Amino acid sequence: MELDRTKIGAAIGRIPSGCSILTAQHAGRSSGVLVSWVQQAAFEPPAVSVALRRGRPIVGLIDGSGRFLLNLIDENPTAMFKHFGKGFSLDDDAFGGLGVEQTEYGPALSACIARMGCRVLERVTVGDHDLYLGEVESGGVVEGAHPYVHIRANGLNY
User: Fold this and answer.
1) Is residue 107 part of a domain?
2) I need a surface site. Which of 13, 74, 119, 150 has the fewest CB within 10 A?
3) How many of the other CB atoms lie within 10 Å of CB of 80?
4) In sequence order, what DSSP letters do the residues of 58-73 get, joined into one string?
5) d(CA 103, CA 93)
6) SS3 call for 100
């Protein structure tokens, strides 16, 4: 069977996903990055998977601390997309102008509707991304808020 990348991209793009801001901190530095490939991975212990493009600056913070925090975006994502969509180096203030609470997993954003503090269980290399499996050790939710969900036209690029 011949691979048809156009059809494959369209099919993968139909997988619904939300968006989150993944934050991490280590050795006095912290950062955040917009992520859309997040999925529940297990019931017991509760676990999630997160895919990050290799080479993102935040990877060093996650690998150094062994932890990360997922901040789920609400159904009106524009402000978070604008802020985190541009990306940050580790020398940038990724949280300037935002309401933030420090946690042992990473900064928690007050504008987000849910948070999950995770301990890294495993990191797996998959193509151009690394897949992190994290045990969810803490969590919180804003009742009545709804998550942002989107479908992409093409599942082969952002």
Assistant:
1) yes
2) 150
3) 23
4) HHHHHHHHSEEEEEE-
5) 17
6) strand
pLDDT digit string (tens) for 61-73?
999 999 999 999 9
The reply to whether 111 falls in a domain is yes
What's the number of domains the chain is made of? Answer: 1
CATH number of the domain where residue 60 is located: 2.30.110.10
Structure-block tokens of residue 106: 């990473």
DSSP strands (E only) in 15-126? 17-18, 20-26, 29-35, 38-42, 47-53, 67-72, 100-101, 108-109, 114-126
Q: In whole angstroms, how far apart are CA 18 and each of 44, 61, 65, 151, 158? A: 22, 23, 25, 9, 13
pLDDT one-digit tens code per residue, 60-118: 999 999 999 999 999 999 999 999 998 999 999 999 999 999 999 999 999 999 999 99
pLDDT of residue 2: 61
pTM listed for this prediction: 0.93
Residue 28 lies inside a defined structural domain of this protein:
yes
